[in-house]
Amino acid sequence: MRQAMGDLAFRTPGQGFTEITGEVADWLAGQEVRDGLLTLFLQHTSASLLIQENVDPDVQADMLDFFRQLVPEDTSLYRHTAEGADDQPAHIRAAMTQTHLAIPVRDGRMRLGRYQGIFLFEHRSDPKRRQIALHLQGT
Amino acid sequence: MRQAMGDLAFRTPGQGFTEITGEVADWLAGQEVRDGLLTLFLQHTSASLLIQENVDPDVQADMLDFFRQLVPEDTSLYRHTAEGADDQPAHIRAAMTQTHLAIPVRDGRMRLGRYQGIFLFEHRSDPKRRQIALHLQGT
Amino acid sequence: MRQAMGDLAFRTPGQGFTEITGEVADWLAGQEVRDGLLTLFLQHTSASLLIQENVDPDVQADMLDFFRQLVPEDTSLYRHTAEGADDQPAHIRAAMTQTHLAIPVRDGRMRLGRYQGIFLFEHRSDPKRRQIALHLQGT
Hints:
Three copies of one chain form a homotrimer. Chain A is built from three helices and eight strands. Chain A has helices at 21-29, 57-70, 87-95, and strands at residues 2-12, 16-19, 36-42, 47-53, 100-106, 109-110, 116-122, 128-138. The longest helix of chain A has 14 residues, at 57-70. The termini of chain A are close together. Chains in contact: A-B, A-C, B-C. At the A-B interface, β4, α2 and β5 of A face β1, β3, α3 and β8 of B.
């Protein structure tokens, strides 16, 4: 049993989904561990990690619409408004989704389902630099 | 330290909860690892894993009602409608719940609380075959 | 590679957030593992673990308001009402947030982002004793 740690950074284009499956797979391919468990941990409180369908982009567009409607960007609803109308909704949307993911690995590949992709889900309106801490352990 | 990997498959009866605590415990009982960490990863984007109360079935019935009301099955709300009115809501409900769970293990048993059970939460209307990838590590 | 297990218990003051970053860091500081992965597992179904901003308390107050409004404490909405108007909403709010967290550890410190804190998110109205099972592995 051994372990590896790493970091990935992404520039998001504002609210929406950035698929990062390829970047994570590339990092994994560079590690000696072939069978084990991969953990991704997002070091931010206004974005999320999400595993979702990566075939039809409409799935992501509909999901973005849903979260925007569920958690409105209306400053009259919140106390925490100093960083903009999108800031508190971003924290709430992040709380309703995932900050970390763990994915079993076999033969150097993540055991994702056929239609599963890993997404960075940006909740802020402006582009942001987002960092993910990686941890891998196994044999 | 050693690790084990496995798979469990379930046939869900359509929308609702299937408790899988027993099947997971049975798989765990067949492994040599007695103390460690168990990870369950669901290989689908329209169902979830959930740890919830397993005593009163009303808890699950109320939870199902809540998610059905929060994310309506109304095709006029979504772009992604080709697979049926329940498909996009299923993706959204899955995004709001869990795709993976990690549970500490001691003496060959999951360290669940007294009233905690593990559930497969099906979001699609029709019965589906659902696969869970398992990972266990420890001593 | 080695592992350690432990427990932390907290008394919550009723609905709201209790930051537990310090207690978790203290437990971690007492372990021999310096680099690895820390998992926290909450042994309850009506409270959650959450990583969120720990700078401005308004973020937490707004988040509490949001979840109270999204999942109303109105017994006419639920079947499961024997334990009080706050009980079923507590289960639903727990299902929409996290029961477990996994955080990479380096040099004996959790790799949290600059503004990230770990919170115990109590969904019940009355004070409760809450237990978290800890698992740490690494070198």
